[in-house]
Amino acid sequence: MRPLCNLIPKVRNASTQASRRRVVITGSGAITPLANNVHESWNRILAGESAISRLGPEFKGLPCQVAAQICRDSLQLDEKLTKTDIKLMSPATQLAVLAADEALAAGQLNPSQLSADQRERFGVCVGMGMFDLSEVYGTWQQLQRGYNRVSPYFVPRLLPNMACGHISMRHGLQGPNHCVSTACATGAHAIGDALRFIRNGDADVMLAGSGEACIDPLSIAGFCRLRALSTAFNDNPAVASRPFDKSRDGFVMGEGAAVLLLEELEHARSRGAPILAELLGYGLSGDAHHITSPSEDGAGATLAMKRAIKDANISPEEITYVNAHATSTPTGDRIESHAIGRVFGKHTPNVRVSSTKGAHGHLLGSSGNLEALFVMHACAENKLPPSINIEQLDVDVSVVTKTCDWLQNGRRIALKNSFGFGGTNASLCIASYNEN
After folding, report:
1. Which of 362, 377, 379, 429 is catalytic?
2. Contacts for 346 with CB less than 8 Å, ≥ 6 apart
3. How far apart are CA 141 and CA 138, in angstroms?
């Protein structure tokens, strides 16, 4: 493979900013509550299955008794990571590293075969929304028994940027090394920032995404005290996460990681990479309203979507699908649906909407990247993923409740929304690949 950082692709149309580099997705990797790889996770999404189950006895007495947990027994960590790796890495970092490995394999890119110059043009933008609170609690208990009981790896395991660090060291990548931590918008922001690094010429290739693993009693208790989690479906976990349904009562905590392999278009073409989709635009905004609740007018969400559309240099009428942030909270889902209506106006009935969180729960900082991965596969395979567990629709948008074909003719273009505590918002514009 030869470096192509100096090549400038053709502009997409007359109004596009001159010489802007196009960015495509050539690989994806994921560890999810649904499965420990992309293929099975995506197939279970299309099948409308749920990975939400009841929590164990250590969570006894908490109002929420359900979560979407990964299957750690089948991860085979000992075969994929060294003993030293496992000591040094937090659970979330471990998941991100494995997802990055899968993304590289899917993208047919082996960093060990690259030249030193090429590795300098290859970066990592992987974030974490929240570290594992059980790690802190456990270490505090050890400190009560004596200073020497505190692990020397305690601080490195906690730092959110260590997923980036470990991925870059594992593959010798010396391009941008950037960590995002913006609560539940982390993964989407990471992908958007990586898009900009490539566009701006800071890199030719980026691994982008996030990892999250904080299903522990302290985290669940904290979110319960915020009254953010579902508590009405403890006896029927599979239906507890129900975005857009009238009986939704809070989100379901999930865990996992997803990483996308992003490349400058001519770089991908030069090595014959499998091009799955194209990243067209990225918009971000702040609510400037409240630490946990969006403003009733949805101004922040509206701004992020409008900015993503503008950055993509398309009209709103070209978008026919929105993968919503919709976490299954009574207020958030409603506000987002109204914001979608404001963005698209008369075109709103032609825009189909869904949230896959009914199947895998809310992965906090790893939600936007996982769902962007599903949007990418929807673009590539012409399949719209459904919102499951809807018995009585409670929003005024066209919600997809069963897997269906998307658009046979024309380009498939979508928005992926992610919003986080603190009023931070991100929207990605993702499209099927068009050679022109």
Report:
1. 362
2. none
3. 5
User: Are 74 and 409 within 8 A, CB to CB?
Assistant: no
* Residue 360: predicted pLDDT: 98
Instruction: Identify which has the larger pLDDT, 7 or 48.
Output: 48
- 161-211 pLDDT per residue, tens: 999 999 999 999 999 999 999 999 999 999 999 999 999 999 999 999 999
Q: Decide if 96 contacts 257 (C-beta within 8 A).
A: yes
User: Which of 166, 178, 189, 325 is an active site residue?
Assistant: 325
Tell me the three state secondary structure of residue 255.
Answer: coil
Task: Enumerate the β-bridge partners of residue 68.
Answer: 254
Q: Is 184 a catalytic residue?
A: yes
Question: For residue 192, what are the contacts with CB-CB under 8 A and spacing of at least 6?
Answer: 282, 284, 426, 428
Mean pLDDT within 239-244 = 98
Distance CA 262, CA 101 (A): 14
Nearest partner of 280 among 182, 405, 378, 195, judged by Cα: 195
Question: Is residue 367 scored above 50 in pLDDT?
Answer: yes
Bridge pairing between strands 404-405 and 424-431: unpaired
Q: Is 189 a known active-site residue?
A: no
Nearest-angstrom CA–CA distance, 345 and 340: 8
CB 367 within 8 A of CB 241: no
pLDDT higher than 90, residue 261: yes
Among 176, 190, 196, smallest CA distance to 17 is for: 196
Start-end of H helices in 249-329: 265-270, 299-312
Query: How far apart are alpha carbons 208 and 220 in whole angstroms?
Result: 27
> Which of 64, 179, 184, 214 is labelled catalytic?
184
pLDDT at 215: 96
The helix, strand and coil proportions of the chain, stated in percent and rounded to the nearest 5, come to 40, 20, 40
